[in-house]
Amino acid sequence: MGYLSYIYTLFFVLLYSHAIKQINSANLSQPLCTDHERLALLQFRQSFLINCAVSKSLSPYPKMKSWSSEPTADCCQWDGVDCEAKTGRVIGLDLSSSCIYGTFPKNNTLFVLTHLKKLNLAFNDFNYSGIPSEIGHFNKLQTLNLSYSSFSGHIPSELSKLSELYMLDLSNNGGSLADTQLDLKLQGAGLEKLLLNVTRIQKLYLDRVDLSSPVPNILSNRTSLKGISLQYCNLYGELPTSVFTLPRLEILYLSGNKDLSGVLPEFHSNSPLRELYLFGTSFSGEVPTSIGNLAHLEQLDLCSCHFSGSLPSSLANMTSLTVLLLSRNNFKGGVTFSITNLTKLEALDFSNLEVMPRELFSQLSKLHHLSYLRLAEMNLATEIPSFIANFTKLTYLDLAASHVIGPFPQWFANLTQLRQLYLEYNQLEGPIPHWFTRFTNLESLELSYNNLYGTFDVFLHLTNLHNLALSRLNLTFPVGYKTNSSPPKLEL
Predict the structure, then answer these.
(1) Second label for 238, Cα 20 to 30 Å away, from 51, 172, 277, 475?
(2) Is the CB of residue 235 less than 8 Å from the CB of residue 211?
(3) Distance (Å, rounded) from C-alpha 51 to C-alpha 438?
(4) Which stretches of 57-99 are assigned E, i.e. beta strand?
């Protein structure tokens, strides 16, 4: 018994000792931020207003409001702050969508945080401040996101010193897409100088930054790149085809650069490309048959380019496609591939293509996931196609100028998820049905230049409307109608 008692005692002593070590270890590993970094963060907060009313985010959350000014507060526990476990140094600051408003002051205390590896200030409003050159002093920075935050002026050359950077996002610091003003600039050889030093870059997002330059050849040498987005950047010249074949590239967005030209290369089956957007560029030539080798491609937008020739039948092999947009090119011969293979399609644009309507409709009727459909400027010469009745998830429908005839069919009333509906320049006739009042999700509606008639009060129920076009319709207005009775969000 004495021996067993000794064994039990020894076991519990060892167990207790292990528990104490675990507790001490946990206490030792708990990061406690340094006083000067805590004060720097508090002073950074005091530099701005917190105003969620001006936030560009869909889900604003004022993270800095919860920061405590108590002298004993541990900033490593604050919302948006990440610390290194052993030292307590602040290495990450994510204040995206934090309702920050105000001009970014020079010599801001933010730059005291010299160990930062991640800085995210996206979806705030810095009132068109310049990007501070001191950001170049964060020599350990790996990710920098200043998108949607109303910065302006020239991007400082000091950003090229961030040699550890693998993600840079300065996108969309200007106005809307309709606004041609580009407030953030990196002109001349700026992009080339930036790429020269950021040799580890994986994600480069500069949408709506005014580059006003050709695409530098050095972009083709950054084999670490997985994502490139240079939309609406005033790029010009010819894109090196080697950019398409970067070995790790998954995302390539070049839309909106109307003076950027190029041709599609031969694609290989080992390409990881998932998303390719060339909308509104001057790319030309034929779409190669080898595009069917892009087994991982999910989104393809070739709209409003200068492509010609026939659409390759190999498009039917691209069974991962969810987005296929091909309108406004010079394609000949219509749709010669089997659309029914593309069972995952959610968005389709065949506007302007030469098609046989009956054959097209029978194939489209087998696609059950469509939420976006454009068949504009086509010679359909039919009533609103009945296969659309199956697309109850449809949020976008464009049949403008497609020679659609006849009255609205009753089944159309079931498309209550529609947000955008374009039926202008057709031969629709008869009354505007009263069940239009059920389309409460509509944000944009265009019925102009049809033979329709009805009373305007039908549209007063569409409280989410931003755009409404009813030119050349036979409308009557209710007695006592006043303009302030219009849908509250109406802009156009």
Answers:
(1) 172
(2) yes
(3) 35
(4) 81-83, 90-94
